[in-house]
Amino acid sequence: MALQHYTLDVCLSTPVDCASTVQSLLSIFHEQEMTETLHDTDGHGCLATFVGKNGRVLMLRVHSQGLVTIDLQCYDDDNIVQLDNLLNALEKKLKVLLDGNITRIKRLPPLRRGAKVDRYWPTADGRLIEYDIDRVVYEEDSPYQNIKILHSQQFGNILVLNGDVNLAESDLAYTQAIMGSGKENYAGKEVLILGGGDGGILAEVVKQKPKMVTMVEIDQKVIDGCKMHMRKTCGNILDNLKGDCYQILVEDCIPVLKKYVHDGKTFDYVINDLTAVPISTEPEEDSTWEFLRLILDLSIKVLHSTGKYFTQGNSVNLTEALSLYEEQLGKLSCPVGFSKEVVCVPSYLELWVFYTVWKK
After folding, report:
1. Active site residue 244
2. What is the predicted pLDDT for the residue at 285?
C-alpha cells in the first residue's frame, strides 16, 4: 500500500477573500461526492478538509498572505482519471475566479509515500530528488551500517549506505576523479585505498598494473553486496581478497594506518574513499570531523614524500563545510598543499568536489 500526494499551489499578487473563495469551489467537491469540514484557523485564512470515496482526503487552504494551496491524498490504486479531472476542474475554476490576480500556478507530480520501494533521497545540500528506482536488489544491516543496493533505470544499480547515495554503476566519473582524473600513472606504484568497498577504485587502479594495491574496507557485507550486484563497477575484482597485485583487508583502517606509521611503511598514493566532508560546521563538536582529522593525519604520515593523497569533498554548494575542511589541512603534522576539482557525478545530481593533497 502506498499513498499518492498531489499538490496544487496558486500564488496571488494580492490576498483574496478567503471564505468566498472556498464557497465558490464547493460545487466541484460535491460533484465528486466529497463532504467538507471547515476549520478555525485563528485568523490565518480559511482551511477546509474534504473526505471522499476510496479514502480520498483533500485539504484546501486559502492563506491570508495571498496563496491558495491544495493537497490531495489518495491510495495508489485509486482512479487516476477521476483525480486528474478533479484537479483540472479546481485549477480551471481558480483561474476564472482569480483572473488577473494569479502570478503563478504550480502543480507537481504526485509524491508517493509509504511505497515498498523508496524513490526519494536527499542531496547533500538538502534538496529532495526522486529517482527512477524500481526495485531493491540487496539490503543488509551490518554492525556498521544499513546497506541497500537499488536499481535505477537510468543509473543502473546504486549503492546506498545509511540513507546516503554512495555510488551508481553509471558513476565512473566519481572513480576517475578520486584517482586524479587520468593525470596519474599508477604503473609500478604502491597504492593504499581506504574504504572503497564497492570495488570501483580497486578495479580501475589494477588495470594500470601497479606494484601493489592494499584496500582496507571494514564492512564485509558491502563487499558481498557489491560483488553480486555492482559488477559493472567492480568487475570480478571483489571475487577474491587477494590477486597478483592487490590485497583486500577487511579491517578497521585506523589500526592498519597506525601500524604502517609505526613500521615506516609508505605509499605513492593514498585514496580515501571512507566518507564525505561532514555537513556539520562545528568541527570541534562533531565526531565525524575528529575521525576525518585522524585519517588525514595518519594518511599523510604514510604518504611518500613525492606521493599524493586523493579524497572526495562534498557538494559544491556546501561552501562553509568545504572551507572548514581546507582549514583542517593547515593543522596537520606536516605542511601540505592541495588542489580541488569539481566533477559532475551522474547519480548524485549535484556537482561534487574532489581534493588532491601533497606534502610540501
Report:
1. no
2. 54
